[in-house]
Amino acid sequence: MMDLKLKKIEFLLPTLHFNSNCFWGAFEQAGGLMNLYAKQKTDLVLTENFIVPASWFQSLNAIFIIIFASVIGSFGFGGKIKERILWNI
Predict the structure, then answer these.
(1) Burial of 18 (0-12, 13-18, 19+ CB in 10 A)
(2) How many helices (H) and strands (E) does the chain have?
(3) Which of 32, 65, 72, 89 has its CA 20 to 30 A from that of 79?
């Protein structure tokens, strides 16, 4: 029984890794479009002396991913939750 679960994990992890790489590689291509939209459709004037560069909007997505991935990933580190998630694969 244990060998079957380990074989599932050995198959599933590389598959998830590959799919994740493909998804995020394609997803990051949308950054240029967000930059163009921010430049054309948003009010970039913060104060009289400072105009926000449109390129700053391109980094917002990455910042949100880093912040929320850490928060959501920390949920899996509880003892019973971690064990249950791992063995339900």
Answers:
(1) exposed
(2) 4, 0
(3) 65
The C-alpha atoms of residue 81 and residue 76 are separated, in whole angstroms, by 6
**Does residue 53 sit in helix, strand or coil?**
coil
Mean pLDDT per 10-residue interval, the chain, length 89 residues: 79 88 79 74 86 80 84 65 55
CA distance to 1, 10, 46, 81, 88, per residue, from 6 (Å): 9, 6, 55, 19, 11
Question: HSE-up of 75 (CA within 13 Å, CB side)?
Answer: 6
The span from the CA of 86 to the CA of 31, in Å, is 33
Distance CA 60, CA 31 (A): 10
Question: 35, 60 in Cβ contact below 8 A?
Answer: no
